[in-house]
Description:
By secondary structure, this protein is α/β, with parallel strands linked by helices. Helices cover 32% and strands 19% of the residues. It is built from ten helices and nine strands. It has helices spanning 44-50, 85-95, 98-103, 116-126, 139-143, 150-153, 156-167, 174-177, 180-184, 218-225; strands at 11-14, 25-28, 54-56, 62-64, 73-78, 106-112, 131-134, 192-196, 203-208. Strands 7-6-5-8-9 form a five-stranded mixed beta sheet. It starts with 10 loop residues before the first strand and ends with a helix. The relative contact order is 0.22. The model is unreliable at 1-40 (pLDDT under 50).
Amino acid sequence: MAISFSATPSPYTLRPYGDTNYCPVRLFRTPASNLGIQSSEVGEDTANLLDEVQVFGLKGEGIPISDLWKDRKAVVAFARHFGCVLCRKRADYLAAKKDVMDASNVALVLIGPGSVDQARAFSEQTKFQGEVYADPSHSSYEALRFVSGVSTTFTPKAGLKIIQSYMEGYRQDWKLSSERDTVRRGGWQQGGILVAGPGKGNISYIHRDKEAGDDPNIEDILKACCP
């Protein structure tokens, strides 16, 4: 499914080193106003785009992404990719508050850009307590306009967070990180977190990561999902 936006960002093309059969990757500068937003408003255009996005469960079943919060409230985390060490730490960071979410009948969901097999491996390795879905087309990331780029991945702050994560026992899964889809897209994708539902167009909170490891304050998420 093709997704287009009225604004025209500045494109860049990267060739993965040593890949002679590469597919050009278009990276975009995301305006500063779109980064790290914590907001109660998401445009109707974005909600309509999300209604067309399909994600896949661990058994391969496809589901419109907005069905994940159509009849319930959900905290939905978007991983950088399934092998990412910082995303594994984020999964635990959110799961540590799952009892609070459960008490408010709020679902905890994680979506990653990649295949169902990658999602299944992530779920098995991390024992994540929430639901896990794959977005092979990256369409949800495009619809939500999550930032992507080398400059948002390799930052001093992100480097320090990676070191800290390793000291705490978290590890990057290099096998998942080295699979063709992740390599071809460069692994430069950033994610975010939203609180949505009940109702397909009801998105009450969204945080777009400014850089790798840009976790929002957990209390802000809980205020949005579990008042």
